[in-house]
Amino acid sequence: MSATILLSVMAASLAIPQSSSSFDGAALAMRDSDGVAVVRLFVAPDRTVEDCKMLSREVSQADSERVCGKLVGRRAAAPAFGPDGQAAYGTLTYVVAEVGNLRKTGIEGNLPADMVLDVKSLPGGLKSKAIGLNLLLDPEGKVSHCEASDGAGEGFSHAACAALANEVLEVRKDPAGNPVAYVDRMTVAFVSKS
């Protein structure tokens, strides 16, 4: 059995951190930008938000600093959990929409896929299919555990996990600067060439 297939064989489930209602007021601090702000939070096992990165290009630098400045140090409702069931470092994509007086917050939103895989065909004549994956990345940024996060068929999750087997993703560090393992979520889109 190859290492590629072993990535998705482990039985325990991974879980990303859960957002907190305390994020809502902090995140809704945009003054110079209207629209949707997508931030990526790095949450410690003790639930503390240690890092924040603005993913939305249309958000001003001032709003980016303001939003992230208010989120870092806050506590998530729950930490990430690794395959051993223990609290772990994890990332959380958090979406803030603010247009005039309309405000909405949440997680994951309807974001573009993180990775696109071209395939010859898909079952049922589908042109595309997106699946979510929960990943455990080791301190070097390599995938050490991969599983479907959304009940996707086993074939789709195995193919997506195999495609990630040799990839090096983002390396994350604790406050002391040491690389750490962490849980992440990724969306993979399968697109039919036919």
Summarize the entry for a quick read.
This protein has 4 helices and 11 strands, in the order ααββαββββββαβββ.
Structure, explained:
By secondary structure, the chain is an alpha+beta fold. It has one domain. The protein has 4 helices and 11 strands. The chain has helices at residues 3-6, 21-27, 61-71, 154-164; strands at residues 35-43, 49-54, 80-81, 87-99, 102-107, 115-119, 128-137, 143-148, 172-173, 179-180, 182-192. Strands 1, 2, 3, 4, 5, 6, 7, 8 and 11 form a 9-stranded mixed sheet that branches. The longest helix is centred in the middle third of the chain and has 11 residues, at 61-71. The protein is globular, with a radius of gyration of 18 Å. The two termini are 32 Å apart.
Topology:
Blueprint: H1 3-6, H2 21-27, E1 35-43, E2 49-54, H3 61-71, E3 80-81, E4 87-99, E5 102-107, E6 115-119, E7 128-137, E8 143-148, H4 154-164, E9 172-173, E10 179-180, E11 182-192
Parallel strand pairs: 4-11, 6-11
Antiparallel strand pairs: 1-2, 1-4, 3-4, 4-5, 7-8, 7-11, 9-10
